[in-house]
Automatic annotation (TrEMBL):
Gene3D superfamilies: HAD superfamily/HAD-like (3.40.50.1000). PANTHER family: ALPHA-D-GLUCOSE 1-PHOSPHATE PHOSPHATASE, FLAVIN MONONUCLEOTIDE HYDROLASE 1, CHLOROPLATIC. It comes from the Bacteria. It comes from Shewanella saliphila. InterPro entries: HAD-like_sf (IPR036412), HAD-SF_hydro_IA (IPR006439), HAD_sf (IPR023214). Pfam families: Hydrolase. This is Nucleotidase.
Length: 215
């Protein structure tokens, strides 16, 4: 699928790429509205409407991914809620075999995630994901989400990357496109980010439901 001899580094998203997105979808689309309904004594439908609008207002910005922002904006203990649902944090079955294969091929493996550092730490605690990575970066360190060109320049400088010799893997076509505009040489989508939902269709980039199929 790719000219692997031209790729030195594989840049990897976390949620929906290496981890099952079911945890995040359950958390933000079910648990948060349920808790907001209880806290404010409003109907679940009203709580769903409220959070849907709140999410829409900041989508694509760093606030969208910021636990501190949502804790303040919604008045919920977001990090504590994360811990209550932590049993749903699961690594995809293909992730570690893929990461191990990359190591065997002497490819550098770097995690690029929009996840808040507290969320990242929790997920690393509940999985063995860190064992398959050489380095990692939360976009919060850069001050920009992966959707923004400044994130990519920060990341290239931090890890001294030649973007043309990088492959970026993500479940978001929008973010894959941002990486291409920034100069990343190769992109790969994940068509089944949430194990409990139908596959998604990618229009601009190749996509797989099993990372091993890209080797």
């Amino acid at each position: 699928m790719f000219p692997w001899h031209k790729i030195d580094t594989v840049l990897l998203d976390m949620d929906g790429t290496l981890l099952d997105l079911h945890f995040d979808n359950h958390f933000w689309l079910q648990l948060v509205p349920q808790q907001l309904s209880l806290l404010r004594q409003i109907s679940l439908d009203d709580a769903n409407d409220l959070v849907t609008q709140a999410y829409h207002n900041v989508v694509g910005t760093l606030d969208w991914y910021c636990l501190d922002y949502w804790q303040q904006h919604l008045g919920l203990d977001i990090l504590a809620l994360h811990h209550t649902a932590a049993d749903k944090i699961k690594i995809r079955q293909d992730s570690m075999p893929f990461l191990q294969a990359l190591a065997s091929a002497s490819k550098r493996r770097i995690l690029f995630t929009n996840a808040h550092p507290h969320s990242l730490a929790l997920k690393l605690t509940h999985t063995n994901l860190a064992e398959g990575l050489d380095e990692l970066l939360s976009s919060h360190e850069s001050g920009y989400p992966k959707e923004h060109p400044n994130f990519w320049q920060y990341a290239f400088d931090k890890f001294k990357l030649d973007p043309a010799r990088c492959l970026f893997v993500d479940d978001s076509e929008v973010i894959l496109a941002a990486s291409k505009r920034a100069g990343v040489g190769y992109q790969l989508g994940i068509s089944n980010p949430d194990s409990q939902k139908p596959h998604t269709v990618f229009n601009q980039f190749p996509a797989v439901s099993d990372l091993l199929h890209s080797l």
